[in-house]
Design a protein that fits this description.
The chain is α+β, with helices and mostly antiparallel strands. It has helices at 65-77, 91-96, 110-113, 116-138, 163-171, 199-204, 265-274, 289-300, 314-319, 362-373, 399-408, and strands at 19-21, 31-32, 38-39, 44-46, 52-55, 84-87, 145-148, 151-154, 160-162, 219-225, 232-236, 247-253, 257-262, 277-280, 344-349, 352-357, 380-384, 416-418.
Length: 419
């Protein structure tokens, strides 16, 4: 992804209270959180009431990644798990800070296995700084202090202090350069069954998915794309539906789709169903299950077929076989359908574009926003929302973000939710 790396001010998802501490190998200048507290690094926010907010770039889509990553940070931080919550940093903020949170992509089980080392280091670094701050306050060696359950104890004297009370002082310390991570034999949280951080909100209805989102003055869009891949819109008759109840506008979306924008999504969908559209289905108009299977058979049987992994000599083995059994298996073409319908909400003005979206890759959504809006990175932002299922559909392919922005550009100043 080609992104503008100039320094800029963006709307941050940072909480409005507390201190952010964690591992940040890039950030050298001390910045401050929204409430004015000094922020040293990126991963852990400790509020005055000892609440620990763990920032995660990966996406939660039901697989438990957020809880798993939070366990890793909390393990090294030695904090009270019952006081842990989480938030998503924004891709724009991460870009501004030289991608301090690393990769946002979540898929192929990479969320934990490719980021556990550096998020653990974020927790460990924060713990060392907190312990040092308490030791400085007591004027004792840090080696005489121990941290557990969000409390630092001076072992010889028994004095205690909570994380929230020393977080401000900890932020002013130079981050330690070499921090030792725990041996897996010492783990108390990692890999253990704990209450997931997102369960309660899902049960009590507080959880907001992308298609639940409501913004002041928001309009809703329903879209119809060409039913054939590679096809285009030939024509549509907007005049047939513009007088229908709630309809605000009928707009082209790229060269392959049409959307109706209305006060409610049902009004938009009803009008879209009544909208006359003529399609140019293009070169794939005659593609069928049979033609797809024929292409697969041709490729699988080709003498120069690409071999990705070879183990042994199959041809020689078959030549020596006393008996051969042949069978053919195939899957039909399947849609990658998530439980939560694909959606994104966009608001566009001449000098700013924002998108609220359930995405597996906030940075990919950000790149799609930049391309579709035509605005520079310092005028764009993506706010990630928990996903009602992902399965890859909300990762590499960001058509839903692109389309939402294309629609919003034709309704300037008004947030539009595309469902």
């Amino acid at each position: 992804m080609k992104m503008n790396r100039r320094s800029f001010i963006v709307t941050s998802a940072a909480v409005t209270g507390g201190l952010a501490v964690g591992f940040n190998p890039f950030q050298t200048n001390i910045v401050r959180a929204q409430d004015g507290s000094p922020e040293l690094t990126a991963w852990v926010v400790i509020q005055p009431n000892d609440t620990v907010v763990i920032r995660m770039a990966r996406s939660e889509m039901g697989q438990g990644t957020i809880t798993g990553l939070a366990q890793m940070v909390a393990e090294e931080l030695e904090c009270d798990w019952n006081k842990v919550t989480y938030e998503y940093p924004t891709p724009g903020t991460s870009l501004k800070r030289k991608r301090v949170w690393g990769d946002f992509s979540t898929g192929g089980s990479r969320g934990i296995r490719t980021s556990h080392d550096y998020v653990r280091l974020g927790g460990a670094t924060a713990r060392v700084m907190l312990v040092q701050a308490a030791a400085n306050q007591w004027k004792v060696p840090a080696s005489e202090c121990v941290a557990a359950n969000s409390v630092i104890t001076h072992k010889p004297s028994g004095r205690k202090v909570t994380y929230g009370k020393v977080a401000e002082a900890a932020a002013r310390l130079e981050p330690p350069k070499d921090v030792k991570l725990k041996d897996p034999k010492e783990w108390k949280l990692i890999g253990k069954p704990v209450k997931r951080l997102d369960t309660v909100d899902k049960v009590n209805g507080k959880q907001v998915y992308g298609f639940d989102l409501k913004l002041p003055g928001m309009l809703n869009a329903a879209i119809k794309d060409c039913p054939v891949f590679g096809g285009k819109v030939k024509s549509f008759d907007a005049g047939r539906v513009t007088s229908m109840k709630g309809v605000k506008k009928v707009v082209p979306v790229g060269d392959s789709a049409v959307a109706v924008v209305a006060e409610t999504w049902w009004q938009a969908k009803t009008a879209l169903d009544a909208l006359p559209i003529q399609w140019d289905e293009g070169p794939n108009a005659k593609v069928s299950q049979e033609s797809i299977l024929a292409t697969l058979r041709e490729g699988l049987g080709a003498p120069q077929a690409f071999v990705g992994n070879q183990n042994g000599d199959i041809k020689a083995g078959l030549a020596k076989a006393t008996k051969s059994v042949e069978a053919t298996y195939f899957y039909p073409f399947l849609n990658h359908v998530c439980m939560e319908p694909m959606n994104a909400t966009a608001r566009y003005t001449a000098d700013r574009c924002e998108v609220w979206v359930p995405t597996q890759d906030g940075e990919a959504s950000f790149a799609a926003l930049l391309a579709a809006s035509g605005l520079p990175a310092d005028k764009c932002e993506v706010y990630k929302i928990n996903l009602g299922g992902g399965f890859g559909r909300r990762g590499a392919f960001q058509d839903y973000v692109t389309q939402a922005v294309q629609i919003a550009k034709q309704m300037p100043g008004v947030p539009v939710k595309l469902l």
